[in-house]
């Protein structure tokens, strides 16, 4: 199976590159651009095109969100012309106001924000115009490298002693970019074998949590890892923010369909964070630690 993914520096693109490098059944072509032409698809002949998500469209300039929607629609036309499957990953922020219960796949987002509505229009067009699509709605992505990675910037800020502010009244399911990469390959492998299960799917980490609690847990695990290495580092503090004064906003995706159809299980975000911190410590500059393991 050959996949083509756009936006080479995106954390999901890098995660897919790592995953495919360990496999013999999947080939990955990475494009620097954020859109692809029919001519390029004829040249590469991929089985699917993957468009990484805007991780935080609510926090982006509206023009950038509109540009992303336009690029996705260019990809849609190219995929239709060459009969190539289209996979579009989308942030859970499209459910702008959240829900009291876990959000099922059939619930189409209806945001108030104009730029988010533009993304929903793109999704509606994909569903109406092209059967061979997967719209994969994701919780907040985290990874150690790449754009939209979140965790890398969080670790850098904490280690530098900077305070980190995070909302305590927004509940979501943090999602490992590595877990998404593994899931997408598994889903597309089954599609290539005749599963014919196109449509919208939700994919997120387990355990709903606030941004404040997630960030605080990252800080606690980071401190444990550094102390285990013999490093004495004064980490930055985590400050709680409140955006919703009346009630907590919940964006919790129900991921039952991706399990029932493809057998894809959600990955616990705590375990994924721990694994990534192990990897982060292995690549940490050893300068500043003497031979006894104590800070110099």
TrEMBL record:
Q: For the RmlD-like substrate binding domain, which residue ranges apply? A: 68-279
Instruction: Tell me the domain of life.
Output: Bacteria
The taxonomy runs: Bacteria, Pseudomonadati, Pseudomonadota, Gammaproteobacteria, Oceanospirillales
Name listed for the protein in its UniProt record: dTDP-4-dehydrorhamnose reductase
């Amino acid at each position: 199976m050959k996949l083509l993914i756009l936006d080479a520096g995106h954390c999901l693109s890098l995660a897919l590159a790592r995953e495919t490098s360990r496999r013999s059944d999947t080939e990955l072509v990475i494009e620097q651009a954020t859109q692809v032409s029919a001519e390029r698809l004829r040249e590469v002949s991929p089985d699917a095109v993957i468009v990484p998500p805007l991780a935080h469209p609510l926090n982006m300039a509206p023009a950038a969100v509109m540009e992303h929607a336009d690029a996705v629609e260019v990809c849609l036309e190219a995929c239709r012309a060459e009969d190539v499957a289209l996979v579009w990953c989308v942030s859970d922020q499209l459910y702008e106001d959240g829900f009291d219960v876990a959000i099922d796949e059939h619930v189409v987002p209806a945001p108030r924000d104009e730029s988010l509505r533009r993304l929903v229009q793109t999704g509606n067009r994909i569903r109406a115009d092209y059967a061979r699509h997967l719209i994969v709605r994701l919780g907040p992505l985290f990874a150690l490298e790449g754009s939209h990675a979140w965790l890398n910037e969080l670790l850098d800020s904490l280690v530098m002693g900077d305070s980190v502010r995070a909302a305590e009244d927004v509940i979501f399911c943090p999602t490992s970019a590595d877990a998404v990469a593994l899931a997408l390959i598994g889903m597309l492998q089954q599609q290539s074998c005749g599963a014919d299960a196109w449509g919208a799917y939700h994919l997120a980490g387990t355990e709903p949590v606030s941004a404040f609690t997630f960030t605080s847990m990252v800080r606690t695990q980071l401190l444990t890892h550094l102390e285990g290495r013999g490093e004495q580092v004064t980490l930055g503090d985590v400050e709680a923010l409140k955006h919703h004064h009346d009630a907590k906003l919940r964006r919790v995706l129900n991921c039952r369909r991706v399990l029932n159809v493809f057998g894809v299980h959600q990955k616990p975000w705590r375990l994924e964070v721990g694994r990534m911190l192990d990897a982060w410590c292995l690549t940490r500059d050893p300068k500043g630690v003497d031979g006894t393991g104590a800070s110099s």
